[in-house]
Design a protein that fits this description.
about 250 residues; five-stranded mixed β-barrel; Rossmann fold; 10 strands; alpha/beta
């Protein structure tokens, strides 16, 4: 394949990719999800962007990683769209913000607060970041079929992972009922809206809000590498892929 036939940032082919994509943060998670596919093939691996193709229950799909943070992630979303992807599901991890949402649970994101560090430079702040309604319903149906505990709600996409010196509106967002906090989803929703594409997101809870003042000795701090999280990731992988199939009209 010639250099001219590859897109510049992700190095994915300019043409020939399936129209449905599951996008994740971690390149290793992309490989793990690809292991669930039939005829999986790695088509690109450049920087944090690792891309596979394969089929899920007969549906051709892309599985690709976008790394950490909205500014880098939106480059993958844009180049996948350039290459022909029309439906996106982001499958990631998040911190819980609402009482009753436990580790390993899924959060289906109906919309996202645009605190992502990139879309503010593309559109006025008043422009919303929203999931396609059909994606929310497909993810909900897939979660119910899989027997996966799930919650629906608005999530906070924030560029900074660790808290700094500037006070943040965490308490207000908690009172407003936000479900979770993560780092890339609003960038996907805005990118998809600008191109008239379908996008949704499902997140596995791997801890509490990173800004919470916790007793480090009692809790051990933030630790996403636990069995309960791994079990949620396994369920979420299937939910995300099955939602793509439902969106493609694969329900029977």
């Amino acid at each position: 394949m010639t250099t001219q036939s590859l897109l510049p940032v992700t190095r994915i082919p300019r043409t020939g990719l399936p129209a449905h994509a599951l996008v994740v943060g971690d390149p290793a998670r992309a490989a793990a999800v690809a292991d669930l596919l039939e005829d999986a093939k790695e088509v690109a691996y450049h920087r944090e962007y690792r891309t596979f193709t394969g089929t899920w229950k007969g549906l051709p799909v892309v599985v690709a990683s976008h790394g950490v943070g909205g500014p880098g992630a939106i480059l993958l979303f844009q180049e996948l769209a350039d290459a022909g992807v029309r439906t996106f599901i982001r499958f990631g991890t998040a911190g819980a913000m609402r009482r009753g949402i436990g580790d390993g649970d899924l959060v289906i994101a109906e919309a996202a607060v645009r605190d992502d560090g990139v879309t503010q430079q593309l559109l006025p702040a008043e422009y919303p970041a929203v999931s396609a309604p059909e994606a929310v319903l497909a993810l909900q149906r897939a979660a119910e079929t899989a027997g996966a505990p799930y919650h629906r709600g608005i999530v906070w996409t924030r560029a900074a992972f660790q808290p700094g010196l500037i006070p943040l509106p965490t308490a207000a967002y908690e009172k407003a009922g936000l479900a979770a906090i993560e780092m890339e989803l609003s960038a996907l929703y805005v990118a998809a809206s600008l191109r008239g594409l379908v996008a949704g997101g499902v997140l596995v809870i791997d801890g509490v809000n990173a800004d919470d003042l916790v007793d480090e000795e009692a809790t051990g701090g933030y630790d996403p590498h636990r069995d309960v999280v791994a079990e949620g990731v396994a369920r979420g992988s299937v939910v995300g892929l099955e939602a793509l199939r439902l969106l493609a009209g694969g329900a029977r």
